[in-house]
Amino acid sequence: MKRSDFGRDFLWGAASASYQIEGAYNEDGKGESVWDRFTHTPGKIHDGSTGDVACNHYHLFEKDLDIMKEMGLPLYRFSIGWPRIFPTGSGAKNQKGVDFYHRLIDGCLSRGIEPAVTLYHWDLPQALEDRGGWTSRETYEHFCEYVDFATKEYGSKIKRWMILNEPFAFTTLGYMLGQHAPGRKGPSNYLPAVHHTALAQGEGGRIAKANCPNAEVGTTYSCSWIEPAGSFSAQAAARYDYLMNRMFVETGLGLGYNTKLLPLLKKLDAFQKEGDDSRMKFDFDFIGIQNYSREIIRWSPFIPYVWGSMIPAKKRCPKTTDMGWEIYPDGIYHLLKQFASYKGVKKIYVTENGAAFPDVVTGDRVHDAERTQFIQDYLGAVLRAKNEGVNVQGYIIWSFTDNFEWAEGYRPRFGLVHVDYETQKRTVKDSGLWFRGFLAGK
């Protein structure tokens, strides 16, 4: 398998997210985010860590961009930290924050790296959360203001915008299960968060396209290939597939909420206003799918609403990643076929794919053969889908560097580049060296 097998215009890159790498959490006028508050609350993060420093990318971004250039990375997907630009979520902008992203974007361009921007990667301004967060329609309205500003401010330099990162993940983990910031639980929080996020996705896309008509505007979805444990579990698996994979895609396509499959969603009527159906819909230029594993679902009478549960991968797989996720390359092939079957999906990029494995550090080398194999196997599955007619036009690895992995802290390492968090030394791993050779056509 060679780079040329994917075609001349296929996009290649690596990704990051603002809170996970930037650090400088209270510097140069940045406001508090929900993740600042969450990580500073004892017991929320498995290793007790925070993103206060993380990879110190805010101060070391030039070094990171130099490594990207040396690796021959054509594209860098990163996110803008909303509270770094608008410390309270709206109102007066923070010019130092605005200037930082200009420096980052210009640094990419000067090195021949395309900057691809995600507008929301989970670091909601805490000031908005204090007034309801995504459970409040006000947050959706302020998000639209933020998108309008950012796309006007940086639009002349950006070819590809991504409105949201994984809406299923941040609404479910943050507003239903309480495992991620802001740590809310229950349907009373989850349902309004879902609807206001669906509005933000559609209206955010419309604003970005109006301000940047020559750019591609898309959004990204976390996806897991879903299979039932048996025929008796088929309906439960269908509900999981809808929630995890299809709900936000279908609202964006104008298909609304599938209340027949998931009656719980009938309660969304309480949060809808006239015209919301059209506000949720937007004709995206592309969608990004982000896949790491598959899930096997069995029927369960103990899980309300979905009436099913996931069978843990470690109970059914001989080999998993450090996150306990099954390694299943066929899953990304099936997902690409599934999403390509939607009439309104024009183009697909794989905007995240990668794995956490233990690294072996010996001197100036970092050995991670399992990660290299993982990437090769998943790339093979992507190529298979592409060769069968799926319009998949890019592959972006998660992640460029090791980083703060949300509630898991710093233990899982996903990076092509190893970070020694005490010294902030960067070392390109063997997987990164392989990817450099692959991009060079070797």
Q: So, the CATH homologous superfamily?
A: Glycosidases
CATH architecture: Alpha-Beta Barrel
Helical fraction: 25-40%
Text of the CATH class: Alpha Beta
CATH fold annotation:
TIM Barrel
Strand content: 15-25%
Mean pLDDT, all residues: 97
SSE-based structural type: alpha/beta
Distance between the termini: 10 Å
Count of helices? 14
- How many β-strand runs? 13
GO biological process, one term: cellulose catabolic process
GO molecular function: beta-glucosidase activity
EC number: 3.2.1.21
Catalytic activity: Hydrolysis of terminal, non-reducing beta-D-glucosyl residues with release of beta-D-glucose
Using brief descriptors, characterize the structure shown:
442 residues, alpha/beta, TIM Barrel, 14 helices, 13 strands, globular
